[in-house]
Amino acid sequence: MAKQQTFADKAKAKTKVSGVSVKLIKSVKSSKGTYKFNEKFVKIDDISKVGEIK
Question: What is the pLDDT of residue 29?
């Protein structure tokens, strides 16, 4: 059987997502007095808006 889809076809099918992914790390103080760190990825439109993330 012949190959139906080439790498170029796969690359054309993928759409580029506008924006930037940033890793957000928040520290939370627990009731015992220790700190826990929560990590998550956040997608923003422009890198200059990093300071506005809450």
Answer: 96
